[in-house]
Amino acid sequence: MNPGTLSAIISGAATTAPAHAPSLATASDFFALLKPRVMSLVVFTGIAGIMLAPVPMHPVAALTALFCIAAGAGASGALNMWFDADIDAIMARTQSRPIPRGRITPSEALGFGVALSLASIATMGVLVNWLAAGLLAFTIAFYVFVYTMGLKRRTPQNIVIGGLAGAMPPAIGWAAATGSLAVEPLVLVALIFMWTPPHFWALALYRADDYARAGVPMLPVVAGERATKNQIILYTLVFLVVSALPVLAGFAGLIYAATALAFGAVFLGLVLQLCVMTAATRALASRRAMRVFGFSILHLFALFASLIAEAAFGVSALMGSLVA
Amino acid sequence: MTGQPRTPESDAARSLKSRNRALAFVLVGFVVLFFVMTLVRLGGNVAERSF
Predict the structure, then answer these.
(1) Angle value at C-alpha A165, between A200 and A37, nearest 5 degrees
(2) The CATH number of the domain covering residues in A34-181
(3) What was the ipTM of the complex prediction?
């Protein structure tokens, strides 16, 4: 984004509505700024961090921590939409977001995002603990400054490095419960970190024309379809190995192991179908890419659901003793 | 429908009302959250204090 565009967006001049016009934004428009679907997965992985922690957390304190994680994730989404308003207006996938539609001015989104960021960090610090607040602040700053402003428009490695922000919630949840960090939450961070590239590159294969039009250097745009598919296979294999670490580290049990094995096998099958088998038509190739994208969400959800279920019913100790 | 015709002003007023309601809800929620968390953090320390 050049400085002229930036100042126009800050002043609100980039929208179609005149700057002095009364705002038509409703509460639901502001809610849409929070990227609620992304937020739900972030909260779910945060719950796993809290549930796996060896220190029981008071339910109200746990809900407060989850609320702060959700608000922080939402604030990151709002600030991302503020900065990316120009390319969101070009891409078909993002044209219906509140800023491109003219429902919210960029300056409103900026103010909302900054206020929500500060409120979520301060609330986490005052009511939970300052390590969790620090990790939340790092996550928001990494997503906004490193990924959105730094990497996204500059390198095809944008979602690889930027994926760290989306991977942090289990560590924040664990820190909220214990006031410290340990190997377990870092394994979960690594799990989400390695899941991110195949997940987003499958979407990028499907939306390559969209990204190219907006000038976002996603891997399929810069390196082509073949190179992207090779990278998807590589990262999928690493992700599947990392998904075994919770069992090997002794903090996941049979339910998780069975889930990881079953979902891992299906995911690998879908990835190989997308990346190795030749698609007869463009539509079939797109369908395969979207199948990998959709299943990857279900896969991550299932892995964390099994960890949460085991923690809730206390069954992971069995596998831990078997491995030991 | 016998209501007033929609004008840009009435749309803006309706949006403002929606935002104000949401803001009020959030502020009241914050007050309740801080009150409950204060009780949680104090725990039994107040009830069991020795005066």
Answers:
(1) 60
(2) 1.10.357.140
(3) 0.80
